[in-house]
Amino acid sequence: MTTSNPFRSAERRPHTDGLFHANEVGLANRNSGILLETLRHDVTPAGLHYLLNHFDVPFAPAGSWQVEIGGRVRAPLSLSLDEIKRLPARTLPVTLECAGNGRATMTPRYQSMPWAHEAVGNAEWTGTPLRHVLDRAGLLDDVVEVSFIGADRGFDRGHEHAFGRSLRRDAALSDDVLLVWAMNGQPLLPQHGFPLRLIVPGWYGMASVKWLNRIEALDQPYDGFQQVNTYNYRAVPDGPTTPVTHIRVKSLLVPPGLPDFYSRQRMVEAGRTPIFGRAWSGAGAPITRVEFGVDGTWQDAQLGPEQGEFAWRGWSCTWNAEPGEHTLSCRATDANGETQPLEQRWDVGGFGNNAVQRVPVTVR
Fold first, then answer.
1. Alpha-carbon separation of residue 100 from 14, 118, 332 (angstroms)
2. 136: three-class secondary structure by DSSP
3. Distances from the Cα of 141 to the Cαs of 75, 144, 218, 314, in angstroms?
4. Does residue 1 surpass a pLDDT of 50?
5. CB-CB contact of 287 with 331 (8 Å)
6. What is the topology classification, in CATH, of domain 15-230?
7. What one-character-per-residue DSSP string does 201-270 give?
8. Secondary element (H or E) of residue 295
9. CA dist., res. 51 & res. 9, Å (int)
10. pLDDT confidence of residue 16
11. Which of 10, 152, 200, 238 is most deeply packed, by most CB within 10 A?
12. CATH number of 250-363
């Protein structure tokens, strides 16, 4: 079988329908998603939190990690993890979602990590606000962006690079942007960025760079591959682009009843059936409403307590399940008035799909 050379080709992969490519299956075996039945956990256990790692997980020898802070600063720094840990710390509950979550339900889909609904999790992240490090280095007046480079390196569309992203100066100086060393009260796991990562609350997960080892202040926009060549909304091929930033409003429900092993379709007993789910949105916009739908008929759900400005919110209701085949859905609305669409917005890269979830069930 003849295949193209991935190290020489800069072409975007073709869109496809139907069966998953072997490479997509390989990515799915490397990158795990949350199990929807575990949405009941207010805080997602580390082993259940979704993963999207572009390249290999770097090996980080204990006690030797250094973060370089340079570029347009008055005093370039090299800080050890212990030095960073001595800075003022805070813990934030933050819901992270992959920008490609829902890609597998788009038609035709871009060949990449084939997420359905599972690329989300809510953890308690402990670290120091990034601004403490930037203040120590001293940003010059002409700084417009700050870039963050990880130790993970590889090829994407023929381009060799370390994974990197950037934030505008004002965003980088927010108290909510953290240099993180702990997840749910424990040191970061290797696959979650040990020993140090960035957490950017309210943004899709690509902004929260893992294995962080370089911070650079810039007097012009960062032009790294993962900032410029991907993570951009594009409604048509070769059309205008809009950067992917804050998480779009979204909700999921825990599939009720019992699953079929292979298809994951559900069997539910007739009668009063409790329904539970989660809803979230980006940029700190609170969830104000969740609706539960059965075959296109909607009812308001009851919202649970808020868990933090950037954390998901539980919701619940009761469904009087009647025998037959049904499709269950949920849709959330946030304080900005944004509501999940019933149909997906197609995107060239498969980004930002927040269309309502549909769960087929059989009631006996």
1. 16, 10, 19
2. helix
3. 14, 9, 10, 43
4. no
5. no
6. Sulfite Oxidase; Chain A, domain 2 (3.90.420)
7. TTB-GGGS-SSEEEEEEESS----HHHHTSSEE-SSTT---EE--BPPPEEEEPPPSEE-TTT--EEE-S
8. none
9. 27
10. 85
11. 200
12. 2.60.40.650
Helix (H) or strand (E) holding 135: helix 130-137
Q: Token pair of 189, please?
A: 């796991």
Each residue of 12-49: pLDDT tens digit?
Answer: 788 888 889 999 999 999 999 999 999 999 999 999 99
Residues facing residue 239 across a β-bridge: none
Q: Is the peptide bond before 14 cis (omega within 30 degrees of 0)?
A: no
| Integer Cα distance of 226 and 163 in angstroms | 7
Neighbours of 85 (CB within 10 A): 17
HSE (side-chain half, CA atoms, 13 Å) at 358 = 13
Residue partners of 61: CB distance under 8 A and separation at least 6: none
Give pLDDT, residue 63.
87
| C-beta contacts of 175-178 below 8 A and 24+ residues apart | 175/90, 175/129, 175/131, 176/92, 176/129, 176/201, 176/202, 176/309, 176/310, 177/129, 177/130, 177/131, 177/201, 178/90, 178/92, 178/125, 178/126, 178/127, 178/128, 178/129, 178/130
pLDDT band at 132 (very low <50, low <70, confident <90, very high): very high
On whether the CB atoms of residues 118 and 51 are closer than 8 A, the answer is no
List pLDDT tens digits, range 334-352: 999 999 999 989 999 999 9
- Tell me the per-residue pLDDT of 117-131, one tens digit each, with 9 for 90 and over: 999 999 999 999 999
**Predicted confidence (pLDDT) at residue 3 exceeds the cutoff of 60:** no
pLDDT for 2: 45
Contact 321, 356 (CB under 8 A): no
The C-alpha atoms of residue 316 and residue 195 are separated, in whole angstroms, by: 37
pLDDT surpasses 60 at 142? yes
Where are the domains positioned within the chain?
15-230, 250-363
Percent of the chain with pLDDT over 90: 92
Task: Flag whether the pTM goes above 0.90.
Answer: yes
Is the Cβ–Cβ distance between 253 and 361 less than 8 Å?
A: no
Predicted local distance difference test score (pLDDT) of residue 7: 56
